[in-house]
Amino acid sequence: MKRKMPVLASVVALTMALTACGGTSGTKATSTPAGTTTAPAATAGASTAKDTITALLPPVSPNYQKQFEQMSKDFTAQYPNLTLKIEPASWEDMKQKLDTQVNAGSPPDIAFGGSDGIPKYLQQGLLMDITDAATPEMINDYEKAPLEYMKNGKGLYGFPAYMEVHALGGNKEFLEKAGIDWKKVQTSGWTYDEFRQAVKKGVVTENGKTRYGFVFAVKGVAAVDYLGIMAKNAGMPHAFNKDLKYAYTSKNYLGLLKDLRQLIDDGSMPKELSSVDAGKRWNMFLTGQTMITGKGLAVFENSAKTNNAKLKAADASAVKDSIPVDYVVLPAPTFQGAKPSFATVVDGYMTFRGKKEPTAEHKANVVKAAYFLASGKNAAATNSDLFSAHITQSGKKAAESMKIDRSPENVAAVDYMLKNATPARSDIPTELGAKAIKLETEVIVPKFQGLIAGEITPEAMYEAVKTAAIAAFGADGVVKD
């Protein structure tokens, strides 16, 4: 996940043998601009010609990649004339490999990724709009909200796999020792001031070792996760407001930067926070070095329970020096008096085209494959593995026989956050979205890493972002408050 996933996340490889849109037999000689749809609407079983659909897929859930061979067999059993060629990739390699292929003009037909990457790939001209090829049965299988995340303008660029909330995670024992009413927080939320005081209480020094109140992974690309999740709860749910003005020039952004730095200055977070990556963050949580961790996904409850079972069985594969942990899902705090707007991660199966326009038949086959991966028993198995809510009726039905051991309090916490989730914004023009991603990559991430490391002040970072934003969007294209 961006997972990003995530998470709103890992681990595998891609050969350059992946061919665009299943090979030359699935393309026409003419080309059309990105997002243009000229093929007639596809219908199931419209062609019996042999075709291969390629897919680049990371380890979406703990058991996901173990099912690739069976997925391919099941797909061909359903569509005897079609072959689903799945290429595994690690989370670490996924983006680079996909970008390399896109830049070469030969992306896979399907690639798993965050819906927030759609503007970038759309601008590069190789995303495939499947609006005219997705059948009503496919569309109606979905809940409306997550499907909206796979859209840009009027185009639909794939199918979502899940809709998850980026939360925080707490150690139940430590929360209760600090006097924190975690059940109330789960269903009512908390303000930054309340959160700040809570994580201060979570700082404990025993036998010369410090347990921190809060640790968040910020090394590398994870830095933008921390800032982005908190910004949504600070009155800036998106990089652009409803008037399409860049939002991070708001005074709320400066206030947020000051608050996030304050947690380190308080001693509630380690001064070496800039060196904490996702793996170290989770290790610190399981070994009792922090009371609250972030970012947290529902699947972390499952991961903690798995490690607890290993400890109980004296299994040597348990995390070294770890302790039993009851994992508690917690919402991120709100800042600057803003209403809660919890960060959702909608990852899914993006559909790509090569430089040549795909035939109507090949386009329909790609849609069949993407929907096959995103629905039914495949979606049920993946989402159950992730402790994620099911977003298709077919997935929900297939999951009825799959039993999972999940805390009802954690389910209630996720429900609270989903009810206050950040809505999708398909109205943001592609060029603005791409510029925002570029500004984030080139300015926000390195400056925020400097802020976390104590190398620059919140004011200095804010001015740098403001200057870059005005250069990118113009003086009238940014928020002034």
TrEMBL record:
Signal peptide range in chain numbering: 1-22
Chain intervals for the UniProt region annotation (Disordered): 23-45
Cross-referenced SUPFAM superfamilies: Periplasmic binding protein-like II
InterPro entries reported for this sequence: Bact_solute-bd_prot1, SBP
Highest taxon in the source lineage: Bacteria
Alphabetically ordered keywords of this record: Cell membrane, Lipoprotein, Membrane, Palmitate, Signal
Coiled-coil segments on the chain, per record: none
One Pfam family hit: SBP_bac_1
UniProt protein name: Extracellular solute-binding protein
Species of provenance: Paenibacillus alginolyticus
